[in-house]
Amino acid sequence: MKPLKPYIGTALLLMIAASGCNNDLDEKIYSEVTEETYNYSNAYQAISIAYANMRGLISHTHWYMAQESTADGIVMPANASGWDDGGIYKRMHLHTWNSENPQINSMWNTFYAGVINANRLIDQLSNDKITIPAGTTKESLISEMRAVRAFFYWMLCDNFGDVPLITDRSDELLEKTGRKEVYQFIVKELTESIPNLSEERNTLTYARFNKWAAKTLLANVYLNAGIYAGETRWEECLAQCNDVIASGKYQLETGLPAPFVTENQNSAEIVFAIPFEENLAGGFSAHMFSWHASLKNKVNMLATPWGAGSAKGIPQFINTYDADDQRLKATWMTGPQFAADGVTPLKGSYDQAGKNVVLTNELPDGLYTGEAEGYRMNKFEVKTGAQGSLGNDFPLFRYAQVLMMKAECLLRTGKANEAATVVSQVRARAFSAKPAKATVSGADLAKTSGYGYGYVENYKVVDPGNTAAVQYGRMLDELGWEFAWEGFRRRDMIRFGVYTTKSWLSHKPNGDYRAVFPIPQIAINSNPKLQQNPDYN
Predict the structure, then answer these.
(1) What is the count of structural domains for the chain?
(2) How far apart are CA 273 and CA 391, in angstroms?
(3) N or C: which end of the chain has fewer CB within 10 A?
């Protein structure tokens, strides 16, 4: 977490050493431009690095699958094509990860890179090192970078708990700050910044923190305040959601796939997205780590998915869907698979020896599965001719989530029937063929979860584990059906009290301390002031 400059000399020495035959050591000055003398002529280009850093989050060894594969909807087991990788995926499912798991190190590094970039930009904007374009103000851009910094601190607070709170460009090594204090810092940064942010929803503010994206972030923070600070903030969350709704800037798409198609940047439902472009801004590869290799021919892909695929639906979760819920097929690839002509069956090549690929809703356990076992990712469109990286923007926040946060707050504050009205609004498009099924009641949402929790061996639940009812469990189920594959599940399960208490597939409870990840060992090695999170020592 030190500035770049102290390492520049080392890099130059290494380049000189590598050249071998160049003995001319006279200094050659190629440019007198330094950080102190350089002025950015385009503020939007300057702040783009703070957002570009977010693309790293969406991978199978990063934040994205750390949220999904540690929860009860998706698992990443080994199979005949590989995917053991030293156990880094199975440990996430089993909740036996350690401080050297790559997913944990990736999260820590990217979150703090985001913080450091935001700190640098706030400093440069404050000291007039960046030219402010017409149509905006220095105060607005500083507030935007404070919102970006708050976003990364939310990620740190949510995943690691107590973390160092760095708010300037100092290279001083810091101790951890308590989780509640980090939460309070995030709330303060957002509440002070929101009044200065743009209210516009257009191409200039897309994938940036305008007022409504920042309010949605703040609503997420308030929604989980009971976990972060031991104090619920349902009314405060509700107020932020109501502001976003009242803005009239966003709406539910009529079709389920619309927020997830390749060209989804114009979706009226997306409040804040991480933009991807397959050639210039790659890294979103959910199809590569979930799809079977033969599925390349389903859409004439230019890249081949990685083996038999790994990320797949947990049958206990799949079984919670209503058969008429169109989100089942819109989210999960199921059944016989065919080439682009729709006729030619796709063939297996690992443990199926040329048999047709028929994706089944069955897994023997969460550790090793057959190549065609388990439903696969179908939520994000994989266009004809897709490459290894998708061009779909990843919707971190969408209007459906704003509505569902509102519904949960209403439910938890004794307004169950009002909550049910909002949930029914979100469900409506998923039951367009059976509209009567879209309507739920307040009493429905107060029921326990329909998830068949329990430990699985040889395709069957052999140990139900903790069978206690889940308070508002039906609401948790609703969140699962709507937001599968979107990185929500770990956080939702923690809030509803099941993440460290229930068994699913090969997972059994492994301690409440697993509700946060350990500080990466490499970070502790480099900062003697850092102490490991409790019980990870």
Answers:
(1) 1
(2) 12
(3) C
